[in-house]
Design a protein that fits this description.
about 210 residues; mainly beta; 2 domains; 4-stranded antiparallel beta sheet; globular
Length: about 210
Amino acid sequence: MLMPESVSGFLVEKDKLSFATIVSEGELFKEDIEIKITTQGDELVISPNVDYGYGPELFIGNFLNNGFDQLLYSVGSGGSGGYSFYQLFSLKGGQTKTLFDSQDFSPVISASHQIDDVIKIDYQGKLLYLDSSNSGCKNKDDCSLQISSVNAILPYYNIELGRYYLQVLQRIYGGYQANTFGYITTLLEVNSDGVHTVNIGTLRNFEY
C-alpha cells in the first residue's frame, strides 16, 4: 500500500503554488518511492534514481537563485556507514530536471598519516590537513585511511544572497567505518549551467 510521507507547498513558477508528497511502500524500509507534485490540479510523478531506503524526505528551497523553489530529495541507506542518497530537482512547465545527483559526485581524494597526529588530504591537487589526535587509532599501520562517498548533504543558506547551497560531507575513517576522524566538506553552488565548487574544507567533532 502506498503511504504519503510528507507534503509541502512551494512556488516553481509565478503564481503557481505546488504541493509535493512522498509516497512509498513498506514500514521502516521504504520501497517504490515516488514524489508526486500537484500544481493547480495537474499531477506530475517523479521517480528518484534511488527509490528505496530509510526515512525519505524532501527539502524545498531556492537553490538556483531564480526566485523559485527546487526540491532536494534524500533517502538513507542504513547501516554503520550512515550513507544517504540525494537528488536535486527543478520543475518548470510540468517538466522535471535533475540538477544534482550525489551518486555522480566523486572527486578524487586521498589521505595519509603524517607526524604529530596530522592527516594530510589531497583533494584533486589541493591540500587539506586534519588533526586526528582524538581518533582512538592506536596503531597507524592498522588504521589505513579511507574516504567515503557522500555521507550527507546539508542545505546551506546564505542570508545575504537569499539562496541555498549544497554542503556535501564525506567521512574520513580508519580501520573500520565507525572510526571517524572527521569530514571533508565541499560547498557547491547550483546554477542553470551546472554545479560549481565554492569551497572545500574539513570538519571535526561534528555530528549531523
